[in-house]
Amino acid sequence: MKVLVLNCGSSSLKYQLIDMENEAVLCVGLVERIGIEGSILKQEKDGVEGKYIVEQPMKNHEEAIKLVLDAVVDPTYGGVKDIKEVEAVGHRVVHAGEKFATSVVITDEVEAALKECIDLAPLHNPANIMGIDACKAILPGVPMVGVFDTAFHQTMPKKSYLYGLPHELYTKYGVRRYGFHGTSHKYVSQRAAEMLGKDIKDLKIITCHLGNGASIAAVDGGKCVDTSMGFTPLEGLIMGTRCGDIDAAILPFLMRKENLNADQIDAMMNKQSGVYGMTGISSDFRDIEDAAHNGDEKAQVALDAYAQRVKKYIGSYAAEMNGVDAVVFTAGVGENGIDMREMIASNMEFLGMKLDKEANKVRGKERVISTEDSAVKILLIPTNEELMIARDTVALVK
User: Are the CB atoms for 326 and 340 separated by under 8 Å?
Assistant: First the structure.
């Protein structure tokens, strides 16, 4: 079965065409600036030099997806000869609230439920829904599956997801911790069990999805029991531009002192904070590391603070699960940040973690990076959310 995986943003669209007979990626592409001047589509095919590029106006996601379908049947850079070979479409959807704990075949009822969650993900869910509607219009009759960032975390117990707020705020508005990056945490935890040759039901795993957006999950027996992101992706770790955990009383204090309204303080926490706000340099960790190596104190403090927050979550989740068998690093910083992984994993021998510094000198390659005598295995596993979405899609469609 050939599955088209779509990840729609508000003005962008990432996609892959995957042959699920052997899980081979047939082609991969990116559409940018949908609805904006300068719309462009770029597609690549493994083993073929160059790129398939289309530069033309794309007013909306339906126009963009029409061009995607043209691209995937291109004789040189495409993955199929006829669009009828695409037997299913898997959609990444950010927020399903408490409505879905697993991936589902998309129906009118499912789409209505996703629209009800727009308040919880106003930047993401509308774009995801636009992608679904566009595919329904262009590929009538082709089954579609929704794979949700929040679904993997729906196994959290109430003690993990309820806030210390009046309970009526949960019952009226759904104010609780949901967690995100669930597809990534699910993929790397399953892959870690495979690499270790053990049944995931027998393992306690801490997965660290460390990128510009970052989250950590405690996975006990294959099920998420806690995660660092909360009601929104703001909670948890210090990130590229997000502040992560802070004293909530800071918000009204700053609103009064700086004369900020709710939208302005929200923008400050989400877009002007994190390592970018701490340094004034960049949200890109490579830029922060370069500055730190050149003696910038604020840059070094930001890196130290980032690593310290990750350490705190690893320690707390090990306590919560009464042990840990493996710690996994993934996503942009987790996969490529050699120095950052060392900062996080160093001085953790009390927990049974021993990093092999030579094995750690690698970027973006699947590898065990702990010493042979490390009680807790440390793994580097590049995430593959698209493959996870395709697998769920095939399982449901079949």
Answer: no
Q: Kindly report the pTM of this predicted structure.
A: 0.89
Establish whether 377 is an annotated binding residue: no
Q: What is the mean pLDDT of residues 33-59?
A: 92
CA torsion, points 338, 343, 348, 352, in degrees to nearest 10? Answer: 0
Q: In whole angstroms, how large is the CA radius of gyration of the chain?
A: 21
C-alpha pair distances (Å), 278 with each of 281, 288, 290, 305: 8, 10, 15, 10
Domains of the chain, with CATH numbers?
Answer: 2-148 (3.30.420.40), 198-380 (3.30.420.40)
Q: Please, is 280 exposed, middle or buried when counting C-beta atoms within 10 Å of its C-beta (0-12, 13-18, 19+)? A: exposed
Residue 245 identity: D
Q: Is 60 flagged in the annotation as binding?
A: no
**44 sits in which H/E element:** strand 40-44
Q: What is the DSSP letter of 197?
A: T
Determine whether the annotation assigns residue 286 to a binding site: yes
Q: Are 97 and 170 in contact (CB under 8 A)?
A: no
Alpha-carbon distance values, 246 to 27, 145, 230, 256 (Å): 42, 37, 13, 17
Lowest mean pLDDT segment, chosen from 113-122, 140-149, 348-357: 113-122
pLDDT digits (tens, 9 = 90+) for 217-276: 999 999 999 999 999 889 999 999 999 999 999 999 999 999 999 999 999 998 899 999
With beta carbons less than 8 A apart as the criterion, state whether 270 and 234 touch. yes
Instruction: Yes or no: say if 273 and 242 are a contact pair by the CB < 8 Å rule.
Output: yes
Active site residues: 149
- Residue 212 tokens, joined: 């510009």
Going by pLDDT thresholds of 50, 70 and 90, the confidence category of residue 101 is confident
280 annotated as ligand-binding: no
- What dihedral angle (degrees, nearest 10) is formed by the CA atoms of 134, 139, 141, 145? -60
Strand 204-210 to 326-330 pairing: parallel
Residue 344: name the closest of 245, 232, 206 by CA. 206
